[in-house]
Specification:
Layout: E1 6-7, E2 21-26, E3 29-33, E4 40-43, E5 45-46, H1 48-54, H2 58-64, H3 83-96, E6 105-109, H4 115-122, E7 126-131, H5 134-144, E8 147-150, E9 162-168, H6 177-187, E10 188-199, H7 204-215, H8 222-227, E11 234-235, H9 238-247, E12 250-258, H10 269-285, E13 290-297
Parallel strand pairs: 6-7, 6-9, 7-8, 9-10
Antiparallel strand pairs: 1-5, 2-3, 3-4, 4-11, 10-13, 12-13
Helix pairs in contact: 3-4
Length: about 300
Amino acid sequence: MGPLALTDRHHCVLSCQKPLRQTLRLDGAEILRCPECGLVYRSPYLSTEAMRQVYASGKDLGKQFPVFEGYLEASEDPTRDTPTRRAFLRSLERLEKTPFLPERTLMDLGCGRGLFLKLAKDRGWTAQGVDFGKENVAFARQTYGLDVEEADIFRKDWKKRYGAVTLWDLLEHVPEPLELLRVVRHLLEEGGVVLAALPRENNVYSWIAKGVYHASSGKSRRLLELLYPSEHLTYYSADSAERLFAAAGLRVEKIETQMSDLGRMTLPLPMRAGMTFLNGAGSVVGGQTRLLVYARKNRS
């Protein structure tokens, strides 16, 4: 893979009037915040085409971002008891209890190797998925027998509609999250539900990283580089996520917080031990790293 195309971020995707403000400076990048809606951006960012190149292969993902070398492999066994599997099952249970859900049909955008789809299928859902990666699609089809397609998530020719659409750790990877949520609304039946997992910008790790950064007068950036990797283009609070979903015609019904599953990351043992401690502490003091957003398509 050759050099990846980068684009400077100048405006908020919600068309807010005030200019974006720099809050942090990284090596070759900056972190910007919209003073009106609170959305946080990394700039410059990978273009849509560059992101397609990166995520076309699980191997490419690992080469570009070594912390994710074991990310896909950790999702291969649907019987293995992991925090990710438990979170998936809890989310399916919540979807199944959703009042007035049109039907048990589901589209998972950016489905990876299909662990979530496999769990949904085993619970009686008619589940389909889309992913950029050829290897991911081949694995999901051959290993789980899933109905998965290699396709562009921004495509305009969707024909089917679904009772639920899921986006697991996807929205932060696309340059135009509002455009993607409009695609999601198009995919949903009237009254259908979307479930999305997003990175929470204000968390226990950001507290530490920003503290070190400011204490060093901006010279110590190593922790920030880990916290704001180049493949993450946007970061959210509960309020900014609700604003984004509302702009796409999706009414947020509930937002939950959770910690990231460290088992999906390739980490040195000392770092894993430290992050395990911080995950526990963050859960106690409200410093969770992820938002889980449940929203419903507004009826026309």
